[in-house]
Amino acid sequence: MEQAQSKYPTHQEIDTLVEQSRFNYYAGKLPDSLSLAQDALEKATTLHYDKGIIFATAWISYALLGLGKPDDALAEAQKALPLAEELGDPEPLALIIRANANVYALTGQLEQAYELRLRDHKICLELDDKQAVTISYYNLALLQIDMKQLDEALENAHQSLKLAEEHDFTISAGYANGLIGETLIELSRFDEAEKYYSKALEIEEQNSSNLNIPNYYMGLGRCAFERQDYETALDYQLRSITLEEELKDFKGMALASVNAGITYNAMGDNAQATKLFNDSIELANKGDFSPTVLSCYQLMSDSYASVGNYQAAFDSLKKYSELNERLHNEGLAKQFATMQAKFDVETQRREAEINRLKNVELSAALDELEEAKDAAETANKAKSAFLASMSHEIRTPMNAILGFSELLSKTITDNPQKEYLNVIRISGKSLLSLINDILDLSKVEAGKMKLEWAPCDVAGVCKEMVQIFSQKAERKRIQLSVDFSDGFPSAVVIDELRLRQTLMNLIGNAIKFTESGSVKLVAKSEELGDDAATLRFEVIDTGIGIPKDQISKIFGVFEQVSGQSATKFGGTGLGLAISKRLCQMMGGDIQVASEVDKGSTFSIILKGIALAPETVLLPDEHSEDVPNVQFKPCKILVVDDVEQNRLLVKSYLEGQTIDFTEAANGKDAFDAILHDPPTLIITDLRMPEMDGKQLNKLLKNDSRLSQIPIIVFTASAMKEDQEALRKEFGGYIQKPFNQTELIRSLMEILPFEEQETTDGSSNATQQSSRSEDTLSEQERQNLTPLLETLKSEQTTAEKISKTLLIDDAELFASRMQEEAHSFNYPPLNKWGESLATHATLFDAEGILDDLSRFQQLVENLETSLRENRETAP
Ligand code: ADP
């Protein structure tokens, strides 16, 4: 049974050990107290008995401190504090707080000690534990004496005494009396102090406790000394030394010795005085109680000075100041280390907390993101579906509006009515392109939008825009005008539809957000070169303006200036988003300058826009000029540093079976030629890195490449240079050139076949039959089923002529082009292209024209097949 007990200690056994440790501590038996507490700690740890661990640790700390090991004491006390805080039981918590406070107080770290004392006091009050409260008042007062808050100390010491007397806590009453005595001495109220000390001594003696008696003797000695009753004083002080010796309290001995020395000094016994002073220093050093040594030096110095021994006083003071400085530095270092440790612990705690919160937040945020992503994807799909169906629903009635107003314009002769109709047509076209562009927003965002570069009368577009908005502006009594800078080019290569749309958005906005004043469109050309320019279109209004903080926002998708009246202005917040993206695609940008209540200026800046000859803008005359030829399949390399010039060449040669490659300078061109020699090179003259002349020289010097024909185009050559260039290169075109000029130049070099004309004239039939002369029997057999197909499609053509449904026309055109490719029959392909173009442009007249020519096409094919059969052997 006993064995079992020693093997498995109970909580009760541990509590008893703790109790014994405490008792021994108060009895001044510090080593015993320590070993009992250590035993208790070991057992409590095996049992995971937290409360026992905390209690035991507290008494270990007390005992270690009493034994002059403050650092160890502090380490122990600090170790148990977090455990006590975690446990939350106020009783062990208060005890361990007290143990910590004790170490701080006795090592001179008063601020820390005071903080903990207050915490302890609060817990005791909350617990309503009268005895603990009595002690906590005592402890606060004790600390306040050291902090020189003597009035507060006296007040708290009295509170402690009052409670102790009320509840018969005699030992505490003794302590409180002693403390009041000590405070009164500090306040130089020696007579009163003596009374309290006497009372304290009496109680202590009654309770046969001797721990504090040396202190009371010292206090009483001091009071006697102040009365100049040196005999009595010395008697108390020597008794104190003896008692401290019994208690093995070196610090107490040192303090008692120095006080006795002082008394001897006062009594004129210098030899005894010096001996006791030396004893005191030695004792204090033995226990390494540096602050005690310090006060010994101070007291010695005072004492020597009071008896006129200034040399000794000075020496003591010197030692005092040296030690003081050392201690101060050490104290600072210690305080710093303590603070650093606290800081580290706190930082770690906060970091852990932040990480914990972050993880919680992150996973919540991730969930939210996931949900938002799913919702966005669903919404995006719904949006696409909606846009697709809206596309169809809007385009169908728009076909009718545009198609029939086109037809109507041929029959109406009345001038104002014709004007109105024109506005309907133009607005309809713009509206349709706008709808298409909104539908294409997803294309832009996906990077799938392709620009259509073509020669365009850009000034005409500007004028048209102003015309479209003129009625609206008039209704608002806003002056609307357009202005062109000197030398503004009449024709440039640009995507007209996109430019139109962008201008339409900016002018529309300007009128919408302007109540009075003007809206001006200013078209300027900057950096106008031989073949390219920077174009700037400014839309300047005197409207409501845009607040500074919103300016960057308005280009976002579905973004409007916040707080703007939806009913007044309407809109979707899409226009600027699309416009900006389109301008960026055209190698430019939109900028805005605005001031609230003054107005806004939106500027479209398009860089490196290629110039085109005016002649290309006269389609009717020029279409007659364009030779209707089909070049034999070939490869052409186009070399120009302006991209649109290269595109222009390609667009002029659309419908030809030509494989194009491009290069932006002579050097890249040469690399491309080496890699894959073309049939023909068309090159600009002036280019960075390597110009046209250098390229030509390189090629002419290379026997493998010298035979490749080259056409050079340039804008700047003088008349006399033109001939030289033609000789040097072999071919020459003056920039800007139109389609006819390009094709005619190519005809000088490349093999070609003449084609039937699109009007189905007899001449065309003749040409066609001539070209079909070469049809082999194989080709004839191949084309026979095509004739059948075309015949069966005649009803489709007739149907579309009646309904004028653009979608059907587009479908029909692409179906026929597919047939043309699979039967290798170019005339049908060309016809399909024409229908497709007219359908895209909503050109009803053109569509009707194409459809009526379908009949002609069928007949032509039939004739050539028959003629072929007749001439066949
Ligand atoms: P919407 O006009 O359909 O709302 P936009 O993208 O074209 O969409 O314009 C976005 C917003 O930018 C407008 O709603 C308006 O708040 C602001 N804004 C555009 N142009 C002007 C202007 N000329 N003056 C004042 N505010 C403008």
Automatic annotation (TrEMBL):
Comp. bias regions, Basic and acidic residues: 770-779
SMART domains on file: HATPase_c (SM00387), HisKA (SM00388), REC (SM00448), TPR (SM00028)
Cellular compartments per GO CC: plasma membrane
TPR repeats: 134-167, 174-207
Residue ranges of domain Histidine kinase in the record: 389-610
Catalysed reactions listed for this entry: ATP + protein L-histidine = ADP + protein N-phospho-L-histidine
Principal location listed in the UniProt entry: membrane
Keywords: ATP-binding, Cell cycle, Coiled coil, Kinase, Membrane, Nucleotide-binding, Phosphoprotein, TPR repeat, Transferase, Two-component regulatory system
Top EC category: transferase
Key word Transferase present: yes
Record PTM 4-aspartylphosphate, positions in chain: D684
Compartmental location: Membrane
Location of the Response regulatory domain: 635-750
Pfam families per record: HATPase_c, HisKA, Response_reg, TPR_12, TPR_8
Biased composition (Polar residues): 758-769
PANTHER family for the chain: OSMOSENSING HISTIDINE PROTEIN KINASE SLN1, TWO-COMPONENT HISTIDINE PROTEIN KINASE
Protein name, as recorded: histidine kinase
